[in-house]
Each structure stands twice: as C-alpha cells, then as structure tokens.
Design goal:
Largest sheet: 22 strands, antiparallel, barrel
Number of strands: 51
Helix content: under 10%
Shape: globular
Radius of gyration: 31 Å
Distance between the termini: 40 Å
Strand content: over 45%
Structural class: mainly beta
Length: 1009
C-alpha cells in the first residue's frame, strides 16, 4: 500500500508545538522570577557547586536546587554540578533528590556550595503506589515490587509489559510474537482460571483499564496506546493482601502505572530519539537448494528442479528500521506543575508488509488552590496507531515449504507465478490487513483537605477508543482471485467515577491511615462488520471505493454486529496501622457487584489481612549486620468475573425450523413460535481466589546486600465454566455455571537478591537477580479432560493438544505417546489402556507449557559518565508443542516436493508414507536463557564543551536487544504462545507459524535543555 508520509514531522514543528503548549498552560507566576532577575540583575550572586551522596561520594545527577519561597531553580548535570543565580546572601537554597533527605542552606557570602545528601534509610523510604494511595516501602506488608523508570528495560519497546520483563520475581512476561505491537502475555504467580487467561488488571494513574482489544480482531496489544517514555514507575501488586483493594479484578494481580509529573521550580525540555536496526534472529533450518536436490531423490521423490537458488525465508524478510522521537517539557511553580509530551514511533516488522506507526500526546497538570487545601490533578493522553499486517501464516507456511529451486522472480523482475507452489511475494501484494486505532484516556482527580488529616478525593476517568480494521483482498487474474473488502469497526468506552475519604492520624508511637470509598465503572463494547465482493481489476483499491464491489448478496456479505454493556459497583475500605514504626498491620475489604451475575449472587465480598514486624528496629538487632529485616504475612481473597455478558439471563429464539419450533401435527408444517435456547441461571456467582503469602525482606551492611523471600499459595475455586447439562430436557447444548469443588492451585517460592558496590573513585556496580519456583495443579474437575489447543495443518483438523486434567497443571499436553516405528516404518504409540487399539483413550499427560522455574539476572555499572547494563532472563521445566513442524516437516512432504528441515529425515527407518498425527513426537523442551538487552551509554560533559548554559544533559547510547538465546528448541524462538483456544478455553505453549523474533541494535540520543 502506498504511503503519503514516509518520515516523521520536522523536529522544528514538534519543538514549536511543545513551547506553545507550555506558554498556554503556565501561569504568569512561573515566569515571575525572570522579571525579578531582570530588575535586580546587578545584585544577583552566582552560586555553584557539586552534590554528592554522603556515604558513597557518588555524584548525584538530576538533583533539584530551588530558592526557598520562589519559583527559581535548576538541576544538577551528569557530574552532579549546578549553577544558580540568587538575589542576595540571605537566600536559602533547598537541595532535594528522590530517596534522600532534603537540605536547606543559607547562601551567606559563599559562591561555592558543595553538598552531601544523606539517603533516607537507603531505598526503604521509596514511595510505592498501592492503589488509592501510596506508602513507604518499609511500611509494606504485602508482596509488592516497584520499578522506577531508570530500572526499565531498554530497546524497542511497544508496551509497558516489556519494560518490566525479567525484573520482578513471580512475574512471567512472554513476548509470544515478534510482530510490531503484538499482544504480550503476562502472568503473575501463575494462571488461576480455565477460560479467564492470566492478564492482570492494569491501572493507569488511578484509572482501571479494560483489557478488551480495540484492534477489531487484529493481533494488537490494547496497551500500545501508552508511550513508554511517559512512564515514571510501575508497581506490581502480587499477593491478595495487596490486590484485594481492587476486589473482583485483582485475581490475576494488579499492575499500577504512574506517568511522569512536573516538578515545581524547575523547567526542563527533553528530546530523545532512537534509531533501531532489526534482522531475523534465526531462520528455520530448512534445506538449502543443494541439500534439497540431494534429499528429494533419497526419499523416493521426483526432483522438480528449475535451477533456481531461492532462500524463501530471506525473500519474505528484511532488515527493518525503527524510528522514535519524543519531546517532553515539565516544570511549574509552587502552586502549579505540568508535564507535556509528544511521541512518535515508526516501526517496520522484519516480515515484509508489516509495520506499526504510533503517535502519542500527553499532558499532566496539578494545581493547588485555597491555601493548598484543594489539589486538582488532571491527566490526559491521546494516541493514534496505524498497524499494517501481511498474511503472516500463509507467507511463513509457503516460505518454509516451497521448492528452493524455483526462482522467486520472473524475467521481468515480478513475483513468479507457478501452478504447483504459492509465491508468498504474490500473497504479500494481494492481501492487506490495516487497522487504525484512536484512543483517548484521561482522568481528573480533585482532592480536598476537609480538616487536618481528613482528605476527600474524587476520581473521574474516561477511556474511549475506536478502531477500523480493513481486510483487503485485491482482484487478480493470475493467480485468479476475486477482490474483497471487509471492514470491522470497534468502539470501546470505559467510564469510572470514584469517591473516597482518607484519614491519617499520628499520635505518639501510633500511626493510622483509614480509607473508605465507593466506585462505579461502566464498560461498553460495540462492533460492526461489513463486506463486499467481486471487485474489478483497476488502479483503485477497494479500500478507497467500496462501491466498485459487485456482490452484495446477504449470503456472502451479511452485515454483523454485537454490543455488550457491563457495570461494576464497589464499596471498599482499608486500614493501615503502625506502632513504633516496627509493628505493621493492614486490613482491607471490598464489596463488588457486577451486572454479569444473577440476582441471587450479584455481590461478592473480598477481604484481606496482613501484618509485618520490622525486627531491625528492635533493640536486640541494633548490633547486627542487618540494616533492615522485616517479616510479613498476609491472607486475602480476590474475585474473577470474566464471563460473557448476560449469560445468567434466559435467551429466546423466534424462527421457523425443525430445531427451534414445535410441530402441532405429524405431517404438517412447523408453525412460527418462540422457544428457549438458554434457561436463566440467577445463582451463578464469582470465581474466587484465596491467597496466602509469607515473606522476608532484608538488607545487610547499609544496603550493600538486599533481597527478599516469599512463599505463596493461591487457590482458585468456584471455577466459572461452560458445561454440558445433565438434564436432557435442557434446551441449550451447554450452559454456564460455577463448578463445585473444582480448584486450581498455584504455589511457589520467590527469591530476590541484590548486591550494590560503590567505590570512592565513583565506580558503581550493581548485580541482582531473582528466581521463582512455581507449581500449578488442577483438582476435582468433573471432567476427565477439558480439551483446548486446536491443532492446524493438513490432516490435523479437529485435533487438540492441551488438556485440563485432574492432578496436572494448566497447560498440560494431552497427547498420544510416540514410541518409534514398526517394521513397516509406521509410527507406533503407547497403548495405555491395553485394549490393543490406539485411540484418544490412550492419550497421556506429557508435561506442561507452564515453566516451573523462572530466573532473571540484571547487571548495572557506571564510571565517569559511562554506564552499562545487561538483563538476562529464562525459564525451565516447560515444554512446547511444535505445530509448525507437525504440519510441515515430515518425510512424506519432502517426497512430494515440499521443503522440510533435517528433522523430517531424522529416522532412516521411517516410511515415506508415514503420517504425522498430533503426538509427543513434536513435543519439545521449551527451556531457554536469553540475553534480553544490553546497553552502553555515555553522559557527555556539557560543561567541558562549553554548552551547559543551553544544554544541561546530553546522553548517547547503543542497545542490543535479543542478543542471544540458549535453547534446545529448534523453532523460530522458544518464547511463544500461539492463541489456539477452543470455546474460549485458554491454550498454552503451542507454536504454529508464529511471527519470528528480531535481533536489534538501537542507537539513542537524549538531550535535556
């Protein structure tokens, strides 16, 4: 498809736009210090200095230096240096940095002030967002992990999940596809439902998001609207004592995303850009043309050699380029702060015809009024995404199977046309999948201090998105193809209004914080689809003039649509109590009501309790090497409501047919009438997860070594499932219910350890890692097996791969066990029931797609402006089913002139006529260890260059992404999970023609004014 714009808007235009917005939203007071400075220019004093860590002597970059009582301020550069103009010697400078105690210093007659800031009990003072509030890390009693922007993964990032991959114990992020903007699979402490998946609740600046895709059926991540450059921190709530404040939506964990805010007294403009180069990480090892010519005759095939030497995988892939540009400005006065940003990303996929363009804008404003009793926070973001997809599965299927002796192009340089094979380059030209998404997300949160310690807060948020997906098939003569245009429109609307009171009391050794509130959220999802067939061959694409289509019959082009409306009403409360800053207690309860459930069980109650004991604050621990030691334990209940809307209500059918009408006579016609197709079920209720967590947090030698240990056990019950009715008179073939006694249990152990070293020379070295051991098991299912994981490929239709079985984990592969070949060279399988026949009754549990171990290693170091980081991640104990090999790589296909890999001829005694049904033959080890990203950066000394007056920070970097992976799996990549669900029953660990992963090098530049 032609493109009207092939490059991003000019930088000058973006900078000008940012400056205009800054001028529009800043109050006159922000610029007051400029006029004051002009009037007293001759009396100003220039104060300079360097700010360091008092313990490590490390220079602190980005510290704020503000004149107390004014809006004049600055920040330190990469060397910790600052320079500020003060009116006279009576001025008081306030020095501040996150995680450090503030210092206030009178200037006096000094022009050089070197400051040493003391850390606030190391990272224990770090503020953690916990939902409807925040708390210091040292006061946490639940399993919570907080990541700041400096800790995020680097490279080509499309969505927030990629920022924390490998950073949090118990959190498994799977980049299941290499496609730009594709959905990421994220699991917190294992999946707990049969059909509900494992996606946690995402909360953006207090607004709970809906995980529904706005891609109109495309493989687009619903979180792609968010620019990673705008994110300040991500907090992961893992156990129920932390997530129960979100009640029904916290069963799979909660991820809280906080975007950047402006800082008072400091105005900055930041521009960052990056340029990425991506190539196919590794191709499937199909036979080369020479190997193919040799192997086909050896298996009894007739070689059809057209003398070409074509690498079909190379023909459909390319060197892809990614361009990123981001501009942000922030600052403000004592009363008003602002942050605004613009971003654009143009990413080519490594498969030809694959591309994603994203344009984002954000503005966050905070205003204090009424002597600081009233604070109004407003956040607004807008995004536009254009995603273009080629026919991925058909392209890959042809590329790995086509005869490599066939030339890809004819004598005229056009894709060659053949009767025996499909040229994927032709398919690329004739088929397009284009999705355009617009999304606006915003919320306003005024808070008012009624009396001392009592604050009322209102949170009103909206999340509106709309998408248009066009599936375009161009008309063509050779090969013949009717033109077709199918258009899918999707509209998502999410509205939230919350009111809550927070009361804080500090009296002597007692600290109490109490929260009580009400929440109402409404979700509306609507879709419409239209199509038209038989376009004439012309220069006008169907997408630009659908009226050229000639087939409008309802048989082929009947319009379709759907609409759902769901509502949630909740009442919630939480109490945090501390005694002597070492005995901690948290209690939470939330009542959730959902329109999805019947009248008898519309509301569910979700409580939690947790406690902590900071042993390091006890007198008997003062002489120990522990600078922090805390034991915590908690129990909580969360819920799940992920079922179709209105399935608790009766459904009627009004039409005339043998299956929906009742005959009144033996031979007469069926009369028109109305009949039940589903009976009402007012008793269906919440799926419930009970979770226990016991943890230990520690730090030794003033934080040089720190870490944590957590044991958790999560049991999900009242499993929501679509079942077959026992009553033969029941009018519906299936109905929804809570399965009694059935449970899904996840239990495991998380270990985290971090080593921090700082030399007097300024050299810093951090080495950290985490490992998670986790087991999952299904018990008391009323079915011998709940099938899932549909297989694809010739002869594999209706075959299943996964099964939910009692005593086995979710994601279990339920397959015939391949045992070799008989004397005729045909496959043999284990006869488990001993009846002499091989049937589906002989299937066995052959392992699970869920890893039993997850491990991650992070390295960070810096010295004299240079910084280096590397992140490794891996899993083990899991298996993958290679549906790609099952359907493409076996000896029979090679004998018929289709290309394969050496795997197809691995058994010399296998007959060329042997079939390849679904079995453990294609079940493979899914373990891997990956260098996910490695980055080298340098902070340029702008002072030495003489440009510090205009440029306070300048950083250049180079990042490698997906540098290498160690694995026994011989597919494109072991980190894969094709969606092969059946009747919405989740599938796991299946690889079928998945979009291959890229290996990337990214060059970056960051400029701060």
């Amino acid at each position: 498809m032609s493109r009207f714009y092939t490059s991003p808007p000019p930088l000058k235009f973006l900078i000008t736009s940012c400056l205009l917005i800054a001028l529009a939203i800043q109050t006159p007071q922000v610029y007051g210090h400029i006029r004051v400075a002009e009037r007293h220019k001759t009396a100003d004093i220039i104060v300079k200095g360097r700010i360091k860590d008092a313990l490590t002597n490390e220079s602190l970059t980005g510290c704020t230096v503000v004149i107390r009582g004014s809006q004049r301020g600055t920040t330190t550069d990469a060397n910790g240096d600052y320079s500020i103009s003060v009116p006279d010697g009576n001025a008081v400078l306030v020095f501040g940095f996150i995680g450090y105690e503030k210092q206030e210093v009178v200037v006096g007659n000094r022009t050089v002030l070197n400051i040493e800031l003391k850390a606030e009990a190391s990272e224990l003072s770090q503020v953690v967002v916990i939902g409807y509030g925040s708390a210091a890390k040292k006061d946490m009693t639940g399993a919570v992990k907080s990541l700041k922007s400096t800790e995020f993964n680097k490279g080509i990032i499309n969505s927030p999940e990629q920022l924390l991959q490998g950073k949090v114990a118990g959190v498994n992020v799977t980049s299941a596809s290499g496609e730009p903007g594709s959905a990421q699979s994220i699991t917190i402490r294992g999946p707990g439902g049969v059909r509900t998946g494992s996606t946690p609740l995402f909360v953006l600046d207090g607004l709970a998001l809906d995980n529904s895709s706005t891609g109109g059926g495309g493989a687009i991540n619903p979180l792609n609207f968010l620019n990673p450059q705008d994110i300040e921190s991500i907090d992961v709530l893992k156990d129920a004592s932390a997530t129960a404040i979100y009640g029904s939506r916290g069963a799979n964990g909660v991820v809280l995303i906080t975007t950047k805010k402006g800082k008072s007294g400091v105005s900055t403009l930041n521009y960052s850009t990056s340029y990425g180069i991506s190539t196919l990480a590794r191709a499937l090892p199909v036979f080369s043309p020479d190997e193919y010519r040799q192997q086909v005759p050896l298996v009894g095939g007739v070689l059809d050699d057209l003398k070409g030497n074509t690498d079909w995988q190379k023909e459909i892939t390319r060197t892809a380029f990614t361009k990123n540009h981001n501009i942000s400005l922030g600052g403000g006065s004592e009363k008003t702060t602002f942050y605004g940003s613009f971003g654009l990303q143009n990413q080519d996929g490594i498969l030809k015809g694959s591309q994603m363009d994203r344009y984002t804008g954000r503005i966050n404003v905070s205003q204090k009024l009424l002597e600081d009793r009233l604070t109004i926070d407003a956040n607004l973001s807008a995004s536009y995404t254009n995603n273009e997809r080629p026919p991925i599965e058909s392209m890959l299927g042809s590329a790995i199977s086509n005869n490599p002796t066939y030339p890809a192009y004819d004598a005229l340089g056009k894709p060659a046309q053949y009767q025996l094979i499909s040229n994927p380059l032709t398919s690329l030209q004739l088929n397009q999948d284009i999705t355009k998404i617009t999304r606006i997300v915003g919320n306003i949160s005024p808070s008012f201090r009624i009396i001392k310690g009592l604050v009322y807060k209102l949170n009103f948020g909206i999340d509106n998105s709309s998408s248009t997906r066009d599936l375009q098939t161009l008309p063509n003569a050779v090969p013949f193809q009717d033109g077709r245009l199918e258009t899918n429109n999707t509209y998502n609307n999410n509205r939230l209004i919350e009111n809550y009171l927070t009361y804080t009391l500090t009296q002597g050794d007692h600290n109490l914080t109490a929260l009580a509130g009400h929440s109402y959220q409404k979700f509306s999802i609507q879709g419409r689809a239209y199509s038209i067939n038989k376009f004439p061959i012309s220069d006008i694409l169907p997408i630009y003039n659908p009226g050229l289509g000639q087939d409008l019959t309802l048989t082929n082009n009947k319009p379709t649509g759907y609409a759902t409306l769901n509502e949630l009403q909740s009442f919630f409360s939480r109490v945090n109590y501390q005694y002597k800053d070492k005995y901690l207690l948290t209690a939470t309860v939330r009542a959730d009501g959902s329109s999805k459930f019947g009248a008898n069980n519309k509301y569910g109650i979700f409580p939690s309790f947790s406690a902590g004991w900071r042993l390091s604050e006890e007198a008997f621990m003062k002489s120990s090497p522990f600078s922090d030691l805390k034991i915590r334990a908690g129990w909580g209940r969360t819920g799940n409501q992920e079922i179709p809307s209105k399935i608790t209500q009766a459904l009627f059918t009004s039409q005339v047919s043998a299956s929906t009408s009742y005959p009144l006579t033996a031979t007469g016609p069926y009369p028109a009438g109305t009949s039940y197709s589903r009976l009402a079920n007012p008793d269906i209720q919440w799926e419930v997860s009970n979770q226990t967590d016991v943890g230990l947090d520690f730090a030794l030698f003033n934080g040089a070594i720190s870490g944590g240990i957590d044991y958790f056990r999560k049991v999900s019950s009242n499993i929501l499932l679509e079942v077959i009715p026992a009553d033969p008179v029941q009018p519906a073939g299936t109905f929804w219910t809570n399965v009694p006694d059935m449970t899904i249990t996840n239990k495991g152990l998380e270990l985290e350890l971090m080593y921090h070293y700082m030399a007097k020379s300024g050299f810093r070295f951090d080495l950290g890692g985490n490992v998670t051991f986790i087991d999952n098991i299904v018990n008391n299912s009323p079915y011998s097996v709940i099938p899932s994981g549909s297989a694809s490929g010739s002869g594999l239709t209706s075959a299943t791969i996964n099964g939910y079985l009692n005593g086995q984990p979710i994601g279990t592969f339920f397959l015939k066990e391949f045992t070799g070949f008989d004397d005729k060279g045909l496959s043999t399988y284990r006869d488990t029931d001993g009846d002499g026949l091989i049937t589906d009754k002989d299937r066995v549990a052959a392992g699970s797609a869920l890893p039993t171990k997850q491990f991650n290693i992070n390295v960070n170091t810096s010295f004299k402006g240079f910084d280096f980081s590397a992140n490794f991640n891996g899993v083990s104990g899991n298996k993958l089913y290679d549906n790609t090999a099952n359907s493409n790589f076996y000896k029979l296909r090679l004998s018929k002139g289709l290309n394969t890999t050496p795997e197809a001829i691995a058994y010399p005694n296998e007959s060329v006529n042997n079939a390849a049904p679904v079995s453990t033959r294609y079940l493979k080890n899914g373990s891997f260890f990956r260098l996910n990203n490695v980055s080298l950066g340098y902070n340029v000394n702008t002072k030495a260059l003489g440009i510090k007056r205009w440029v306070s920070g300048l950083r250049v970097s180079v990042t490698g992404q997906n540098v290498f992976v160690i694995t026994k799996y011989n597919g494109y990549d072991p980190e894969v999970n094709s969606d092969r669900k059946i009747n919405e029953i989740s599938s796991y660990g299946i690889d079928y023609l998945s979009y291959p992963k890229a290996r990337s090098v990214v060059f970056g530049l960051n400029l701060t004014l």
